[in-house]
Structures are given as C-alpha cells and as structure tokens.
Automatic annotation (TrEMBL):
Gene3D superfamilies in alphabetical order: HUPs
GO BP: glutamyl-tRNA aminoacylation
SUPFAM superfamilies (UniProt xref): Nucleotidylyl transferase
Keywords, ordered alphabetically: Aminoacyl-tRNA synthetase, ATP-binding, Ligase, Nucleotide-binding
Keyword hit for Glycosyltransferase: no
An MF annotation (GO) of this entry: ATP binding
Classification via InterPro entries: aa-tRNA-synth_I_CS (IPR001412), Glu-tRNA-ligase_bac/mito (IPR004527), Glu/Gln-tRNA-synth (IPR000924), Glu/Gln-tRNA-synth_Ib_cat-dom (IPR020058), GluQ/Sye (IPR049940), Rossmann-like_a/b/a_fold (IPR014729)
Cellular component GO terms, alphabetical: cytosol
Domain Glutamyl/glutaminyl-tRNA synthetase class Ib catalytic residues, every copy: 1-200
UniProt name for this protein: Glutamyl/glutaminyl-tRNA synthetase class Ib catalytic domain-containing protein
Amino acid sequence: MVRTRFAPSPTGYLHIGGVRTALFCWLYAKNQKGQFLLRIEDTDLERSTQESIDAIHEGMQWLKLDHDEEPVYQSQRMDLYQQKTEELLESGCAYRCYCTQEELDVMRKEQSEKGETPGYDGRCREIKEPKNGEFVIRFKSPEEGEIIINDHIFGNVLVHNQELDDFILVRSNGIPTYHFSVVVDDHDTNISHVIRGDDH
C-alpha cells in the first residue's frame, strides 16, 4: 500500500512551501488509494512551540487535508530512537565521536587549505571502549562502493560512498538529528513514498 507523510517542524507557522508539499503527498496517496500521515518533527526542543503545532493542525483542517492515522510526534518517540541507536552501535554501523568543536574546526580548516572537501575524517571510528567526556553518535558510512536511489522523478540517482560523510545521528545532548529520526520514523510507519522539494 502507498503511504505518504507530511512532516513539518513546528518552529513557525505553516508556509506556502509546506502546504504545497502536504498537498502533493495527500493527492498522491488518495490517487493511489493509499494512506496519508501527519508527523510533527518536534525534536528541536528550543525552537518548537505549541503555538506552531496548533497552527499546523488548524492549517491542515482549513485545507481539508485529512490524515488517516493519529499524528506522530517525534518528541514522544525518544525511546525508539535510543533503541535504534544502541542497535547501530552494537552492530558496528555507528560509533561514538569525542572530537571537540575546536578539533573539528581545525580539521576543516586544514582540509580547505589542501583543497579538499571539508568533512569528518573518521578519527574516532576505531575507538572500541567508551571514554569520559561528551560525545556524539556518528553513522559509519561505507567507504567503498555505490548506492543507487530509485527516484520517480529523476530516475536512478547514483551516489559514490566515498563522497559520504560520517554524519551525526545523535547530538551530545542525546537528541537525535533530523537525518536519523526521519529515517527511523519512515521505516517504523511503513512510509512507501517520500515527496519533498528537490532542494532536499
């Protein structure tokens, strides 16, 4: 079954770009006799507000873009993200990174001076035992091979793995990043089609 979702962040009012995405997701689900879900991505605790959440719900009701299940709130799913984090660490697909911001700044500066693309160099990849101090959780991206993404608009999109960075999954305060929580949620709620602007 086709299942789409609209997943706004409640850091402001619903804007025309968000409405456009919601409409496309809703129309595609209805056209395919599928389901349309609403997910509130409120893991940015500093910027997310109840006023913005209320405005999103009011806007969706005014537009008559009904969702087929109860809304999902990411802030209520922290236990799930923690579980998936532990699974990735145990399987060796993620690791703790203890680099400070100062170390990262020096790293990127040296890379830029050499004409290299700035990115994390993986220096914490092989640390096996937990250390004292703050850390983030990074995804251990494959260093060889390629990934082919089947995009219904652009066709097969080829990504070379050596171009990927070991991006952060969980911040030092324990809050998951967008890149992590969105994938966990899409998988957990069986989202079949992700419709977004091509700037993403």
